[in-house]
Amino acid sequence: MTCHGKPIVEETIIFQPVKGRQSIGEIGPDGTCTPTTFEPGDGALLGRHRVSIEARRITETFLPDGAYGPPKVEWLVPEKYSSSYSSNLTAEVKKGDNKIDFDL
């Protein structure tokens, strides 16, 4: 996965099929991902999927009195990609190995 040509490795990708259970995967440092549908690493269901990619960093903030404040959210890719309805990303998962890449 890349955003503006730069690799993004702190992300979660979700494949939502037209029918059936969604699959979720974490992108590793090498940029690869094996989504999980039912059991770890079993992959996504075959067929067409809407795709969402959530890449954000959450950091703690502190108030002047030393108490915790609201967390600060830094989106590593535009927030619109975090929902399969607003991302406009799709993928076709076929039998065998699949290479699906998005440049956001």
Structure keywords:
104 residues, mainly beta, 4-stranded antiparallel beta sheet, two-stranded antiparallel ribbon
Largest sheet: 4 strands, antiparallel
Strand order of the largest sheet: 4-3-5-8
Number of domains: 1
The backbone outline, from C-alpha atoms, is: elongated
Helix content: under 10%
Strand content: 25-35%
List the total number of helices: 1
Using only CA atoms, what is the Rg?
Answer: 16 Å
**Mean pLDDT, all residues:** 88
Description:
With 104 residues, the chain is mainly beta. It has one domain (2-93). 4% of the residues lie in helices and 34% in strands. It has one helix and eight strands. It has one helix at residues 84-87; strands at residues 2-3, 6-7, 12-17, 23-26, 47-54, 56-59, 72-75, 89-93. The strands form three sheets. A four-stranded antiparallel beta sheet has the order 4-3-5-8. Strands 1-2 form a two-stranded antiparallel sheet. β3 and β4 form a beta hairpin. The longest helix has 4 residues, at 84-87. The model has no long low-confidence stretch (mean pLDDT 88).
In short:
With about 100 residues, the protein is mainly β. Helices cover about 5% and strands about 35% of the residues. It has one helix at about 85, and strands spanning about 1-5, 5, 10-15, 25, 45-55, 55-60, 70-75, 90-95.
Question: How does the SSE layout of this entry go?
Answer:
Layout: E1 2-3, E2 6-7, E3 12-17, E4 23-26, E5 47-54, E6 56-59, E7 72-75, H1 84-87, E8 89-93
Antiparallel strand pairs: 1-2, 3-4, 3-5, 5-8, 6-7
